[in-house]
Amino acid sequence: MTQAVPAPKAPGAPEARTPELEAGPAVRRLWPLILLSLSLGIGSALRLWMATHDDGVFWPDEIYQSLEPAHWLVFGYGIVAWEFHEGARNWAFPGFVALVLKGCQMLGVTDPRTYVMAVRAVFCLVGVATAAVTYQLARSLGAAALAAAVGASIFALAAPAIYFAPRAMSESAAALLVTLGLALALPPRARSWRLLLGTVLLALAVFLRLQTAIFGIGLVAVLALRSPRRPALVALTTFAAGMLLFGLIDLLTWGSWFHSAIAYLNANLVQGRSLTWGISPISYYPRVILTSMGPAGLLMLGLAAAGLRRSPALLALAAVFAVAHSLVPHKELRFLLPDLPLLCALAALGLDQLSRWAPNRVWRPAAGLVVIAALLSAATFHQLTLKQLGGPVDAGRPSTNVFDDPGPVNRLLFQAYGRADLCGMKLESVGLDWTGGYSYLHRPVPLYQPEGPSRESGKFNYAITPLARAGGAEVVAVDGDQALARVSRQSCRPDPGYTPTI
Q: Is 428 inside a domain boundary?
């Protein structure tokens, strides 16, 4: 009898699945779905817990590049950061946050605690969706379902991903668009609609985070190296159209084409403003990934390297993004958030490759080890320190633990909203840039920095101050070691020189 000869594998096509991975009883085929569901469920619960228990600020951008300009758009007032004074930010991201605030307003929600929680919930959903799309990215590049579920679990349970999840940061939102865009457009012979939609998503990511243009340009380069060349031309045309729209939005909002991109690059690359926040060595990102994620970070990086054989294109895109950020003197872990799901997908591909090199009794325990490491990382999300996250250690923060710092001050801002006689507020405990600003206070009254006018000036009648320094003021609310104190029962004197800027 003639034996059938298998057809040769087309160049770039996923390798044939091994029986150990795809065959077997139905219950075995359910394990990937079970693992993915449990990881997403636990990740969702931890993110929502973080959203409801942490009112701190890790970095001013999570307020003053998102919530404050969105509050200004919807309610007509807010603190103006220098980026929005000089036009160094595109309005797309605060516009997205403004849609959430506007929805709350239309529903009659005016309490700042409630609408801030709504924003946090949206970003928690974004984080969980990114973990789910990480699974899809790995699958689209040929990973087995179990390996893809393990990779997704790393992102779902990684301590820094959980910690940053509720924060309104452009990096988090851009990560979802980048991951989904590549899942659609990067696989060989992707259908035309997938290529088009994926490239559109990569272009939209640039609206949220300028640096993600690396992925869009990189996708065009990858497709140009393949045959046929038509997909590269489609991606280039689509991405160029997206960038033209980016420039048009700047023209309509700032008065000139690509104003925000030019002003941002000039401020940070030419003037070196970002250097005032510190300079880190080139080894910063690998070190911080390991310190913040623990063994899960080490396994992720190791398996991602093993994924080179399965998807050199994805590894190249992730590496170029990481190297580009490593070459910039000022570094922050949040800058690499759009890269993290790609590394997790690469880890899934690396684990899948291990299944081809080793028998089940080797690679399946390895997959279990990765999941255990991810769970251990998740258990530390509320114990992370500034050093572990590579944060602003010298920025005058009162604690090395980043959880809920300075949450008491922000919760007192929420409470101050309900004081009917409030006509001015001074922060005596922490600088304005480390608080929720008008997004949390939600009252159009002067909001002074610690170095602002004295209590005797009559320009404010409430202060948030350390409880021990309340003095003779009337303490109306206490949270931890912080107090909301009424320092005067008189109406505030007008302050024509007050400008809500930082």
A: yes
**Domain co-membership, 295 together with 424:** no
pLDDT digits (tens, 9 = 90+) for 336-392: 999 999 999 999 999 999 888 877 777 788 899 999 999 999 999 999 988 888 876
Express each pLDDT in 424-460 by its tens digit: 999 999 999 999 999 999 999 999 999 999 999 999 9
304 and 182 in one domain? Answer: yes
Asked if residues 473 and 436 have their Cβ atoms less than 8 Å apart, the reply is no
Q: How far apart are CA 202 and CA 177, in angstroms?
A: 6
pLDDT at 5 over 70: no
pLDDT at residue 392, as a whole number = 61
311 and 164 share a domain? yes
Predicted pLDDT of residue 9:
46
Degrees, nearest 5: CA angle 346-131-30: 85
Could you tell me if 164 and 298 lie in one domain? Answer: yes
Range of the domain at 465: 407-486
Q: What span, in angstroms and rounded, lies between the C-alpha atoms of 174 and 120? A: 16
DSSP codes of every residue in 224-278: HTSSSSHHHHHHHHHHHHHHHHHHHHHHHHHSSTTHHHHHHHIIIIIS-GGGGG-
Question: Are residues 94 and 31 part of one domain?
Answer: yes
Clarify whether residues 361 and 460 are in a common domain: no
Domains held by the chain: number: 2
Residue 28 in domain:
yes
| Stretch 306-327: mean pLDDT | 94
* Residues 321 and 339: beta-carbon distance below 8 Å: yes
Of 44, 93, 46, the residue nearest 249 (C-alpha): 93
Q: How far apart are CA 202 and CA 317, in angstroms?
A: 13
Distances (CA, A) of 484 to 167, 410, 420, 469, 491: 25, 11, 14, 11, 17
* Cβ-Cβ contacts under 8 Å for 457 (sequence gap 6 or more): 493
Whether 327 and 416 share a structural domain: no
Pick from 256, 203, 35: which is nearest to 132 by CA? 35
Has residue 68 been placed in a domain?
Answer: no
Mean pLDDT lowest for which of 130-134, 161-165, 471-475? 471-475
Residues 215 and 265 in one domain: yes
